[in-house]
Every structure is written in C-alpha cells, then in structure tokens.
Amino acid sequence: MMSDNPLESLLDPLPSTTPKLSSKKxxxxxxxxxxxxxQFSVLNCNQCLVWFSFSSCDQDIMSSFFGPLASQANIxxxxxxxxxIGMLTFLLQYWLKWHRSVENTFDLPxxxxxxxxxxxxxxxxRLLPILLSTLYDDISYRQTxxxxxxxxxxxxxxxxxxxxxxxxxSLLSATWFSEEERTTATAVAQTSNxxxxxxxxxxxxxxxxxxxxxxSVSRVSYIFYTTAIIxxxxxxxxxxxxxxxxxxxxxxxxxxxxxxxxxxxxxxLSSTSFVVLILVCxxxxxxxxxxxxxxxxx
Amino acid sequence: MCNFERGKRWLAGLLSVILNxxxxxxxxVGWIGFSNCVAGNVxxxxxxxxxDRVFRRRFKAAIILCLSCALISTMWFTAQIQEWVVSTQTxxxxxxxxNGVFKDACSPLFYxxxxxxxxxxxxxxxxxxxxFLLNMSAGVMIFLDSYLDGGGMNYGMCGVLFIVIxxxxxxxxxxxKRPSAFFDTQTNNG
Lengths: 298, 190
Prior knowledge:
The complex is a heterodimer. Chain A has helices at residues 8-11, 32-51, 59-66, 72-99, 108-135, 145-166, 169-176, 182-200, 203-206, 214-217, 221-237, 251-256, 262-265, 272-296. Chain A is mainly α. Chain A has a single domain (26-251), classed as Up-down Bundle (Growth Hormone, Chain: A). Chain B has a single domain, classed as MFS general substrate transporter like domains (Growth Hormone, Chain: A, Up-down Bundle). Chain B contains 6 helices and no strands. Chain B starts with a helix and ends in a 19-residue tail after the last helix.
C-alpha cells in the first residue's frame, strides 16, 4: 500500500532518469475515481454547452425565437461573459485565498459544490421564460427584457463556474488518480470542456433546426431543456461523491497530507519556467483564436 | 476553452466556403466539422495516455514535438493558400485539422507540467492561473478581432508558433517536484 520510504529515493544509486521498478509501490486506488471523473466531465461539458447555446444556431433563427432583443451584439455579449467573468472569478478566488485566508477556496469539494450550484441555478433560471412561453403558449414571455435579464444572469453564473471547473482539472487527477493515470485523467477532464462545444456543434442537426420557419424555430427550446436536464445529473451525484479517496492514490498525495501550512512558504509563481510556460500557453491560444477568427468572415 | 466555440464557427465557415462549391451541403459540412473537433478531443486524451504509458516525465519534449507538428501543418496550410504547393479542398481540410489535433494534444501537457513546476502549491493554483490567462487572451482577442487580416495572420500564426517553440526550448526547464514512487523528486529529464 502506501508504505513507501521517503529516504529510499535518496539512497538509490540508479540514475535519476531510470524508473526504479524495484521501489515501485502499489497505492490503493479507489474504483470510484472513474465515477468522479465522469461526473466532473459531465459538469465541464455542460458548462460549455450552456455557455454557447445562443451562438450554436444562426442569429436569424435565434432572433425568430427570442425576438428583436436577440441581436448579434446581445448574443456576442452572452458569449463574452465567459472570459470577462472568468477572469474576475479567479481574481476573487485568489483574493479570498491569499488576502482573506479562506483556506478552502481552491479545494476540490468546495469548488465542485459551488460549480454544480451555479450550473443548476443558471440553467433553470434561463429556462424559466422559455417554460412560461410553452405553458401559456405565448412567445412574449421569452422575448421580454426580464427574460433577457434571466439569460444574462445565467451566462454570468455559468461563466463564474468555468474557471472553478477548468481550474480543478489537475487537482482532480492528482487527488483521485495514480501517477500512471494522472495525465490521462487531466486530459479527459480538460477536453470534456471542448467536447461540450463539439456536441453543441450538432445542435441544429440533432434538433432539426434548419431555418427560421415556425416548426423549425420552436425546436430551439430543446437546446435549453437539454442543458437544464444535464445540469441536474452532477447535482444528484454530489451526495455519493466523497471529498477524497479513502487512501492516497500516489506518493505525492500521501506526503501532501503532512504538508499543512507549507503552501504559503513555497510561492513558486515567480519561477521562470512556470511563467514562460503559462504565458506561452495563453499567447498561443490567443493568437490561434485571432487566426481562426479571420476565417470566420471568409 | 472559451476560445473553442469561435473555433467551431470559423471551421464551419471555412469548410462551407471550401466544400459547398464541390456539391457538399451544409449538413455534411456540419458533420465534417464535428469530426474535426472530435479528432481534437481524441488527440488530447490519446496524448495523455501516451504520456502516462510511454513518455512519463517527458512533457517538454512532447510539447515541443506537438507544437513543431502544429507549425508544419500551419506552414503547409499557408503554402496552399498562397498556391506555392498543390492545393485541393481535401488537403486544406487535412492541413487545418492536423493543426488542431496537435494543438489540442498539447493542452493537457501544459496543465500537468505547470502543476509539477509549482508543487507544493495546489494543482488548482497552476491550472487556475492558466485558465485565467486563457480567459485574458480570449478577452484581448475580442477587441483585436476587427483589426486582424487573414493573409497576414497566416504568417503571424507560423511566426508565433516558431517563437513559442524557441521560448519553451530555451526557458522552460523541466522540474518534476511532485514526489514520485518511480522517480527521484526534483528530477529533470529535459
């Protein structure tokens, strides 16, 4: 199990690059890790589905369904809440952690519960005007200014859950998965966000939304019903998911348990390698985005 | 992450421009675009599996390899657009898809290497900062979008990829600080 001797690595004469098979210890892995990863991926996937729902169909279809307020500028704003609120949420997290000493700001259970809460609240809030329109057979409910307030509040709540979820992909894999599974788990957790948009790409095909005619446009509501239903799934799973496995799955996790209080003393954020790595990641993403944006108008 | 959706839309736009004239309707274009996106998602997971099984603690090499392949794909795409090499609709779609596949394959590696570099800080701090910067770059692009020119951006993308590869090679020193049952802590395999 987890009886690894920390001195062993110092005494071992093998070159550091050689895997030390003789010292390989088997940490007890929790079978529930796959369930946790699945639930996390559903949450992450749905976050993205909710985020771009309004942009998944042509603007003329959306304005037929949501009325004149569904202008391109309004739809773009619903989309742009993502990066705007995303940045603010992380700054708030950081401020709470380092300036208000709220210890569990970045903890997995806290982040998960908060994200699920934001996701469910947002998804159902924006469904409300659409539901009223369906119940009373009156399209004006979903086209009012109040309805658009609901859509924007939902976009803001959903955008706030984005960095909480995406910021936890590495923590989730480190908490639940062994060293040999960690990168795969991170990849699955991280790419599930992209999978959300990949699935959403098919919205017009899946729901047979072809043009601005009434029978076709009325099916836009299915997009919103679907995301609301999916948002409930992680909520139902929360009571059955412990905050961490019964046994640490790796050496880093077993030793971390004894490192309370070392975080603040070990600020590594100024490390050149780290700074260059994250800047490269961001610049690459931004420039790619700009490059791809140029083709949109082609 | 947040840039992803715009990626889908431009891909749909580009594919319809390329494929509609040859008799492929928008529904088929949608499916082709979807397949491309799935390829990117699969590439990210496959890169995770390969790193875990074969190239453990070789994140830097893997990132450089993926980015180099993305650079070659982008150069090939640019050369086709400029008609320097043979260009067909299929080849354009292949070039652009390869670019996406290699860039997506890189993403989880950035998260994992960042987590190693700032240990013992929590993994949510490294990933949180990455996501913050990704959101920031998406925010900047919202404002720059209307100033960008397609032709120049092909060269710009190649240039940025080249510079990024140079910077990762020169300034990112691998340090695997999370205690391991298989390797010495603080091992550099770069």
